[in-house]
Write the structure tokens for this entry.
Amino acid sequence: MKHASFLKAVLLLCSIPIFPFTCTNNVFAQSQATTGVIQGTITDSEGAAIGSSEITIRNIDTG
């Protein structure tokens, strides 16, 4: 019984320093993205697709 309690304590102490890195890994991956894809269909007021249309998308923070 003592051995099991000691092992649990060691595992807990070893996992505490690793925990913050596992939580922030996704944040760093998302902040590195510089491109993306926007996909869709342009339709008129009745829902019919509009061919040969062009749209402009800009970031309002950077212009």
